[in-house]
Amino acid sequence: MKDQAENLRRRLEARQNQKMARTIAVLSGKGGVGKSNFSLNFSIALSKMGKRVLLFDMDIGMGNIDILIGGHSPYNIIDFFENGRSLEEIITAGSGDISIITGGTGLMNLFSLDEGKYARFNEEFSSLMANYDYILFDMGAGITHDSMKFLLCVDELVVITTPEPTSITDAYSAMKYIHSIKKEIPCFLVCNRVFTNKEGKDTIKRLQNAFKKFLDLETVGLGYLPDDRIVSKAVSEQMPFILFDSEADVSKAMVDIATRYANHSFGEKLTLPKSHFLRNMKRYFLGK
User: Fold this and answer.
1) Is 186:211 a contact under the CB 8 Å cutoff?
2) Domain 19-157+235-286 is classified in which CATH homologous superfamily?
3) pTM above threshold 0.85
């Protein structure tokens, strides 16, 4: 009994000393802003820098990561909860040396964890977090009651907008809602489909000023992506644009964004807290 307790203590200490993956939720206030395309290509850009990346498609019923890479995952999260598969088993190798978990309607199980399901998810996800540098969650457009709880668990948020006024307003509304419940989540901004550098800079600055003025929230502008015809061509070919044409302006801009993020070269002062993803899940999903 004493030996078992000692072994358990050593395992817990080893896990606590392991470097755990950062969990990042990519979201937008509305659909159609290129959020999933950003998540996929951002993941690949990080992978090209030698980072270990897992991309989790969290868009219930509307997930399109498979479509963007022209593949089909044999398993999804429902196989974990209902068919006895491990998380390792449902991971698919994706383009650009990233790993992918697809969600689909099985995500409803993730949003309704009881203690038994949480214990199993906690144990297996802890192992995953030790195997990756970043775990990205490509969230569905907008915010539901269930997805809101999940957003409160992650370490960081990346909010995608475009220069369109409706997109800016929806991005602000989404962050206002999140901020009203939890104020300390680091937030990064990316502007997609800009026609000029000035338009991209102005859009991000406008959002940052609004967050600061009305919410007293400091946000970090990661950068902007041009409205490049290569993107639609790559989508038609079901290939990530960063692999379809690495020399395209949009691909170079994505590499710049990923480099800024990975190197923490934000310009702004930002303290990234230690990851407490699983502890947060226990708090927000089990109320403990």
Assistant:
1) no
2) P-loop containing nucleotide triphosphate hydrolases (3.40.50.300)
3) yes
